[in-house]
Amino acid sequence: MSTLPRPTKSTLTPAGVSFFESRPVSDFDAGINSSTAWTQANPSTSLSDDEPEDDEEETGQPARALYNFEGKVEFRELTVEAGDELEILKEEVGDGWSLVRLDKNGEVGLLPQTYYTFTSDFVTSPTLEMPPFTRRREPSAQSITPRGSPKGEKETLLIIPQHTGEWFPSFRQSLLGGKSLNRFSSFVTSGAEEWVLKGSSSDSVPPRSAEDDNSDGEDEGSNRLSRVGMGEADRHFVDVGPAWKTKVPPFRVLVHSPSKRTSSLSGAYTIYSVTSLFHPTAQQDAQDDEAPSGSPMRITVHRRFSHFVVLHTALTRRLPGIALPPLPEKQYAGRFSDDFVEARRGDLERYICRIARHPIARYAEVLTFFLGCESDLEWKKQLPYHLSLPPAGPSFYAHVFHPAFNLDAEDAADAVERFDAHTRSVGKGVQSLRNIFGRVREARTEMSKAERLLSYSLLSLITSKPLASAPMTGISEQDEEDNSRVRGLLNDDNAWCWRDSCQECLKLTKAVQKTSETLQNVADLYDDHARRTQLATHEALKSVAHPSSMYAGVIETHRSTLSRYNTIVSSPPADEEVAARCETVLNTTMAEMETYHTQKLEDFRTIVTDHLDGEIAFYEQVLARLKATRRTFDSPQYEAGADSPRQPSMYERELENPRLTAKPLPQPCPHVYDSAPMRPVSAAIQEGVGMIFGVSSVGRASVFGKFWRP
């Protein structure tokens, strides 16, 4: 079997040079494409559903189209003809695209930089003729997306990410089942292709000023996090396996105590407490006098949904080579209902816990900042720095270090096929499990209804009061009316007997009444178990759903890199430097596959054990109540029933109107990658899309327009 060659160049940081000063520079914008460039070019796009949008009109520079270009509406691309006058609103929005306004109709959209030139660049030439020509663009699957055409020197605009990279995530997630509208492969957008072909030799991280370093000790939270081992945030190591080397021990994150706040600028919003629990090592525990020995260190900060968006955006841009969990989608209606706030809290906790569990993401600089910055003033001061960090692109792979000959090419090809098939199978199985579990919860509510009906029937029997809507098998209406006139249904002690002062029937009546009341308690337990305990398990199943979609980029990058490597080694003389860089990418993707394997073991073990523990606790409560009721039929409790007359049960009043209709079961919020019907807030989103495109109705401006028709 062929083995990948050993790298010939060291990628270690030179001695005496700080890590931030030695980071490579790359103009490759990882993760930005024609579908996501729109949000990068619109800084007015809100960070979250809590904040208003700014409708301020943008102005740009005049330009003219060089070629005919037929854009695709679903990707917000313009259709232009050669010679059309344009206004360039944003020259660089990523991957060679610009945000452009067409002067003849005012339509705004995306256009490749190579298809226009600024008007000031034209030179008058009476002999110059432009023949009709339409350039055909091919999907960039084999090469880097072309850069801009030659133009005059212009000031580069700094694009601050304001979004997760999706201009309407609920559309992409629910209508397309989580599939990206990106025309470019993950091999391109992650920077892996540029790294394989060119490497990375320049710094991509802007230097931080002395003011940003916070030498005064104001950033106490970050300093506290540094004591538990946070550091070397951009240097990643792969052990034999391949598997990521753990540099920071795992820690737990809780999202809790949601509360509603109001701001004069952004209106009402929900804020969550985020508590990180670190279990210090023996050495740290000996040096730390703030907490008793063995107790975890706690850091609590307050974050809103828009802050999680900032975290997700920064992680996506700085860690393009790993599979990050999707951020919960936005909510445009009912954001402050108790059910939604609790569901959002659980989704955010699962999201941040998966980030903290990843061996690479959990020591990312932006995560340290997110979890450790306790000062609102310091948060606002440091946030622009993290927002302005450019995508890592190929520099991410330049900072991945691994042993030489750490994997075999044939094994790598076999592993990715098996991994792809396995994740697809797991996704289908989990989706089926989620559906079945929903039916199990419904069955518990039906069991609650059955237990309650049985309770009412027993109570109706011993009190001789009819149960409304209950089937009276074998008894006609006339017989029922005649029986109601008969004396002797209950005696003077309110016992189920025609004889007065019958102590034996009094004891039996009280014991059966106790049984009826216990069955009501059991019915309540069934209903509560389905609504709370099983709902938590149902929600937890989302954390293991759709692994194929989550790791699609890793699989695609792995296959493309392996294909490039096979091409290199099969055409002598082989370029050992390119082959070595292929080895780095493959070590990264194989380490991600190993991370999934580890997390899958933890996830399913936790989900199943939590389910079993919940079932055991539920049945123990039911069993305890049934055993206590069974003892009422034995001495001395049974004999004590004759000491006093029977008191009416609190449930007798419900016989005329039994509680057999329960509220609908709360369902888990849809997973980001779920294929689901359009949410009932479509009208509000449609209006927002119309505002983006500057039209009153979506109509032609959106591929999703047909879904808005009643």
TrEMBL record:
GO terms for cellular component: cytoplasmic vesicle; plasma membrane. SMART domains: PX, SH3. Residues 250-377 form the PX domain. Residues 31-62, 129-153, 198-230 are annotated as: Disordered. The keyword Phosphoprotein does not apply. GO terms for biological process: endocytosis; endosomal transport; plasma membrane tubulation. Residues 58-121 form the SH3 domain. GO terms for molecular function: phosphatidylinositol binding. InterPro entries: AH/BAR_dom_sf, PX_dom, PX_dom_sf, SH3-like_dom_sf, SH3_domain, Sorting_nexin_WASP-bd-dom. Residues 48-59 have a biased composition (Acidic residues). It holds the Pfam family SH3_1. It comes from Neolentinus lepideus HHB14362 ss-1. SUPFAM superfamilies: PX domain, SH3-domain. This is PX-domain-containing protein.
